[in-house]
Design brief:
5 helices; about 0% strand; single chain; mainly alpha; about 120 residues; about 85% helix
């Protein structure tokens, strides 16, 4: 398995893991939505975007333009997460998951883009 494919799998699993509970509006996600200042339906949309990005990233090695768009969208979501946590005054610990995920997506995009050269 290539590095790009491995990173695509990791990105997909990570974002399905974060997005599915939001879509299902599980009780912890409802609390997080309220804390972040989002309605439950808005938080479900964020979850749907995460799952859609996961699916597109998964096929990125086979369809690189789709993978690049997915990576860019996921990075925008993580930027939004960092901004939301910073505005809420959540502290550095709350920024770690979004930052680590952004680094993972950046590695995926870097690997994907180098295969296009």
């Amino acid at each position: 398995m290539s590095l790009t494919a491995a990173l695509a799998c990791l990105v997909a699993l990570t974002y399905v893991g974060f997005g599915a509970p939001k879509i299902l509006a599980l009780p912890p996600m409802r609390r997080l939505a309220a804390h972040a200042g989002f309605s439950v339906p808005a938080y479900r949309v964020i979850g749907a975007l995460e799952v859609a990005g996961a699916a597109a990233a998964a096929v990125g090695p086979a369809v690189p333009p789709l993978g690049v768009l997915a990576g860019a969208g996921l990075l925008l979501l993580m930027a939004g997460a960092v901004i939301t946590h910073a505005r809420r005054g959540d502290g550095v610990r709350a920024l770690v998951p979004a930052t680590v995920c952004a680094l993972l997506v950046t590695a995926y995009l870097t690997s994907l883009l180098t295969t296009l050269e």
